[in-house]
Amino acid sequence: MTKKSHNKTQSLKIPQYILVPLKISSFISSKLATSFAAKLFTTPIKHKIPTRELEMDQKSIQKTLYVGAIDKEILVYEYGKSEKKILLVHGWSGRGTQLFKIADELVAHGFSTISFDAPAHGKSVGKTAIMMDFIASILEIEKQYGPFEIAIGHSLGGMSVLNAIKRGLKVKKAVIIGSGDIVQDILDDFISKMKLKPIYSQYLCSYFEDKYQVKMNDFSAYKAAEEVKNPVLVIHDKEDHDVPLKAAIHIHKHLENGQLILTEGLGHRKILGDKHIIQKIIEFIG
Question: Residue limits of the AB hydrolase-1 domain (predicted)?
Answer without folding.
Answer: 86-179
